[in-house]
Amino acid sequence: xxxxxxxxxxxxxxxxxxxxxxxxxxxxxxxxxxxxxxxxxxxxxxxxxxxxxxxxxxxxxxxxxxxxxxxxxxxxxxxxxxxxxxxxxxxxxxxxxxxxxxxxxxxxxxxxxxxxxxxxxxxxxxxxxxxxxxxxxxxxxxxxxxxxxxxxxxxxxxxxxxxxxxx
Length: 167
Known about the structure:
By secondary structure, this protein is of the alpha+beta class.
């Protein structure tokens, strides 16, 4: 009986963690032109972040850019100052102070980062939060959320460019 319970818990954990993917959904209406796809393969500019008046701390910004750079290198995306411009427009951020995180943990609600990425004439939304990570894996930090958003940006740019996502 205990084995069944353990197996159920592991299956639920794997299912929930599978829901937290770092591959954005790109609707065909905003997938961009064939020219954009070809130009992405030739190279992209390093992303710029437009905080859109939202308070985005420097370390969240740094975590996003670092995760983007590592994932882009893994996918074979070339960073070129003359490449296709990539812009991340932040639409919403919620980050708690360290004191609130320690005192209230998940009782104070989730932390999240969401935005819209524009690469050439294509665009897609990115977002990540801490909600689904409490039960199966413990609390997830805003650092991990920012990392996931950075990876989503790189994966989305590769998808728009028609490049395979090698994992």
